[in-house]
Design a protein that fits this description.
With about 350 residues, this protein is an alpha+beta fold. The chain is about 40% helix and about 20% strand. The strands form two sheets. The protein has a six-stranded antiparallel beta sheet with strand order 1-2-11-10-7-8. Strands 3-4-5-6-9 form a five-stranded antiparallel beta sheet, covered by helices on one side. The protein is elongated.
């Protein structure tokens, strides 16, 4: 548990300059020498009060710096829990992820991602909470916490999605209760009724087969080489916007062959603009990165650098990126025509 400092401890740095100021005022009011109007007396008085003011400023600054260090430590701990670093390898797959927050000074925002190894394959999630910055952290935490349990427990990918939907619904109900005027909340400030989350769920089997469920999220890119979008079907509405349908279309996307990679992202990447209003050309940046055969971490670094150059470091939305590459040994039965589909076949159900 994080313990806050008591007020006496917070005010301790101000005690020496405050005592010095009290002595200076007492000297000015009671000392006969200080009552004289000569130039030396005025200079001495000015020096005393200048020293007092400087001490007060330095004492306040010292306290603020200490508080800022504590806040940064708490923010870093929050990031480690919410968006914990992904392992570089998961069951023969190379993985890398990164996030940029639009909120100045924030290291996390409303985007989320996770990847875990389960008995059903490697399962990944990437999502985007409506809005950005610190206000969307709670919804991201609710979805991520549910995924980290459901990914292991649920045999089918549609079962995982339904668990995420129920977790978000509970969070929104609690938000609505807290925002109600009877609870002392600020009704109308970031109302929960307008909150939703886009989610892309992927499952990569031992044979490289990729299953997908998409709720209003951008489809990934296939890096093999070059960069082409993978769009196996129409996405569902975002979570929280509408109830999930009774039949969830789990799309079979084909196989992720050895050497191929998937690039997952939130819409903040493709929607980023520069000062002239031009959109960020994510496909071109990915095509250049894929030609060099870069590792997933290098692809993330290339896109991050290009994004910051394009926007001048002034993002208007959070950006989350995740790359997964198949580094498993090739299976003789696999061939190029059985690779990941880039077209839009009829969806199938698992």
């Amino acid at each position: 548990m994080i313990r806050t400092r008591s007020w006496p401890r917070r005010l301790a740095p101000l005690a020496p300059p405050a005592a010095w100021g009290g002595v200076a005022v007492l000297w000015k009011l009671t000392c006969p020498l200080a009552q004289q109007g000569g130039l030396p007396t005025r200079i001495a008085t000015s020096v005393v009060f200048f020293a007092m003011g400087t001490g007060l400023v330095l004492g306040i600054r010292h306290g603020l710096v200490r508080e800022l260090r504590q806040v940064r430590a708490i923010a870093q701990a929050t990031q480690q829990v919410l968006l914990r670093p992904l392992p570089p390898r998961l069951d023969g797959l190379s993985v890398a992820a990164g996030q940029l927050s639009a909120a100045r000074g924030a290291s996390v925002g409303g985007d989320l991602y996770e990847a875990v190894v389960t008995a059903h394959g490697v399962r990944l999630v990437i999502g985007d909470v409506r809005g950005h910055g610190l206000a969307s952290l709670a919804a991201a935490a609710a979805v991520l916490g549910s995924f980290r349990e459901a990914a292991y427990d649920e045999e089918r990918l549609d079962g995982v999605l339904r668990r995420l939907d129920r977790a978000l619904a509970r969070h929104l109900r609690e938000r609505a209760r807290d925002e109600h005027p009877a609870s002392g909340g600020r009704y109308g400030h970031s109302p929960s009724a307008e909150e939703f989350v886009t989610v892309l769920l992927l499952e990569i089997g031992r044979d490289g087969e990729v299953l997908a469920l998409n709720c209003g999220h951008p489809w990934p890119y296939l890096l093999s080489p070059g960069a082409e979008p993978v769009a196996p079907g129409d996405p569902l509405p975002p979570l929280g916007a509408f109830p999930l349908p009774g039949d969830l279309p789990v799309h079979r996307c084909g196989r992720l062959l050895p050497g191929q990679a998937l690039f997952l992202h939130t819409d903040g990447a493709e929607d980023a603009r520069n000062a002239a209003g031009q959109f960020f050309r994510l496909d071109e940046v990915l095509a250049r990165a894929a030609v060099t055969g870069a590792a997933p971490a290098a692809v993330i670094h290339s896109v991050h650098s290009a994004l910051l150059r394009h926007t001048g470091g002034r993002l208007t939305d959070d950006v989350a990126l995740l790359v997964v590459r198949n580094d498993r040994s090739p299976v003789p039965a696999q061939s190029a025509e059985h690779g990941l589909r880039r077209t839009r076949p009829a969806p199938s159900h698992r």
